[in-house]
Task: structure prediction
Amino acid sequence: MSLERGFRGYALATLGALALFFAASPARADTAVSACGTLSPAGNYFLTTNLTATGNCIVIGSEGVSFDMRNHTITGNGTGDGISDGGGHFESMAIANGKIRNFSVGIGLDTSCCVVIRNVDSSKNTDTGVLVGTCCGVLDSVTANNNGTVGVMALECCYSLNNLQVNNNGAGGGIIATGCCTASANSTVSHNGGTGVFGNDCCNFVINSKVQQNTGDGVDLITSCCNFVVGSTVALNQGDGVHLTNDDNLVSGTNASGNSGNGIFLSGTDNQITSSVANGNQGAGADVQCPGAITGLQAKGNAGGSLTTSGGTCTQLNNKL
Result:
């Protein structure tokens, strides 16, 4: 398994997006914004008051726009985007420090790349809290709770999602990553109507996060290889705790207990489980397609048995079953 390959891609995406953030930081905003409208040309903008809107409110109209909401709130009527790129295919933008409420999509930057969103609460929108599009970007200290469909959606590769609160969203789920190489770290993803964290390409990571009490799987990373769940709690979900398909996946230092399906499900070959716990699940503690390696797994009190293997022989060491 190429751990180096996966983490190298994550690190490069993170460093590149952070460089863009500091190059276009909203901390030096110099153009006041007191009404909904288009932010153009490139430069630093800051919000001076709370805003209300019918339909779209703020439209990013140029590359290199940095928007500091200065702890104000933008409120809609259940339609449009709170902050949008207007379909402009822009690069390099930053949004920080505010709240967005009651739009269809709180932040809709689905045709732009190189986005940084920091210290923003985009909750109680009728559809999606935050929608980001083309590669690459960073969401840091972002809250997306109680949205009608999805909390956070990243359409393409290479997003770093750090310190997110994504809870109580609708049937679309919590965090949805449809491209490769997105890392969800230090985040809480709970009580969502679908899957907690979903990815359908390679090299997606869930790191040091709590993914609990979602109505689908806790973590569902499918289609391609090299997905990792590390140092996380994935518990009390109504499907599998961790569900990874294809080859070269890793579950390490993770507690996948009390789920309605399996604690850990791994298909494909050359998968690894290390130093993890899968107790009290309604399915198996771990259901693994071999060959692979299972080391330091504790799996007790599972209705479907401690460990189910198929397809060959898995190396096993120091397990407590």
In short: Residues 1-29 have pLDDT under 50 and may be disordered. The chain is about 5% helix and 45% strand. The first strand starts at residue 31 and ends at 33.
